[in-house]
Amino acid sequence: MCSRINWARKLKIFSEDIKMEEKIYDIVIIGGGCAGLTAAIYARRAEKSVLVLEKNAFGGQIVYSPEVENFPGFIKISGLEFSDRLYSQAKGLGTEFEIDNAVKILTDGEYKTVITDYGKYKCRAVIIAAGLTHRRLGLENEERLAGHGISYCAVCDGAFFKGKDVAVCGGGNTAVTDALFLSDICRSVTVIHRRSEFRADPVLLEKLRKKNNIRYEFDSEITELAGEQGLQKITVLNKRTGESRDISVEALFVAIGFLPQNDICKNTAELDDGGFIKAGEDCVTSCSGIFAAGDCRTKALRQLTTAAADGAAAAYAACKFIG
Ligand code: NAP
Asked: Is pLDDT at 8 greater than 50 in this prediction?
């Protein structure tokens, strides 16, 4: 009986291998965020066969934004709705999708092969739109308390701390957006920023000024995270005065930027010093047939609009490459 099951398994793996070998996509897109889904829309409209590989949520980082107010044509839309619309548009045009993690691209021979955790996909061109991952504080206890009071997504986890005292670390658009969102549901929000001024957009700072349950710790850094089952307090050092003090909070939302997720490019496309894929506005990388779009590419401005623009440019370049 056991050996019959094993044989059946072997047969299934073998037949899946054959099935995967048979299908050759025109374009495999790694990453289903704004850049990747826009690339899919453009490539499908050019009648190319397209597979999008995404390891988390379709829509990318914007899924976690409560409100998007700077995408042309939308006065206000939630990140989730924006993502849903993008996904539906790409799907409606015939894009195929897989939830899978791409780990390697093989470039030998006529075709490229994208190796994932669960399979392999052959194609003529690859668009890498893998986006970014949250930067960590790098403090002791951070990993242990992640999911137990330490969060990298206010929209996902904020509701767990309704009526509680929480903190946000960072001074960019994400930190300020998170503080605004949390101030509506939490008792108090303490924002800890390492400099004396925020780098967030003035329109967001104006909204911040109207809130009366947000406190600020400028010129400060978090030096300790403490708690047994969950986060209980953070220690904050004011770098200007040299004073250190404990703040009791039940949650800390870390919003200190992002790092590129470009491990997949090792041995293929060239990276810059920051780990971003070297590619110009045309999204062409140093590796023939591999294109880079969105936040994972070297660029000055990382926004939804620039991700969408990259998606279109990368699809155009990939379609031209395929011929
Ligand atoms: P960001 O703009 O890179 O800001 C990161 C913040 O974290 C900065 O204030 C930085 O301090 C601080 N920081 C970096 N490393 C740190 C560390 N190790 N310890 C403590 N603080 C640290 O990142 P972001 O706010 O996540 O935004 C990313 C991109 O998304 C930006 O282009 C942003 O405009 C965009 N975005 C837009 C919106 C919107 O338009 N509504 C919303 C969210 C995000 P310094 O200021 O000292 O460098």
From this structure: no
Q: How far is the CA of 198 from the centre of ligand 1 (A)?
A: 9
Cα(126) to ligand 1 centroid in Å equals: 29
Longest dimension (CA), the chain: 74
157 is catalytic: yes
Distance from Cα 173 to the centre of ligand 1, integer Å: 6
Token duo for residue 117: 């955790």
Is-above-0.85 flag for pTM?
no
Model pLDDT, residue 21? 52
Cα separation of 280 and 130, whole Å?
16
Residue 3 has what pLDDT? Answer: 40
Contacts of 88 (CB under 8 A, 6+ apart): none
Question: Which ligand 1 atom sits closest to the C-alpha of 257?
Answer: 23
**Residue 17: band (very low, low, confident or very high) from pLDDT cuts 50, 70, 90:** low
Which amino acid makes up residue 241?
T
For the question of residue 287 being annotated catalytic, the response is no
DSSP 279-303: --TT-B-SSTTEEE-GGGBS-S---
Whether 283 sits among the annotated catalytic residues: the reply is no
Of 11-25, 134-148, 170-184, 270-284, the poorest mean pLDDT is in 11-25
Q: Whose CA is nearest to atom 36 of ligand 1?
A: 173
Ligand 1 first shell, C-beta below 6 A: 65, 70, 135, 169-175, 177, 194-195, 199, 255-258, 302-303
Q: What is the pLDDT of residues 220-234, one digit of tens each?
A: 999 999 999 999 999
Give the span between the Cα atoms of 267 and 273, in whole angstroms.
15
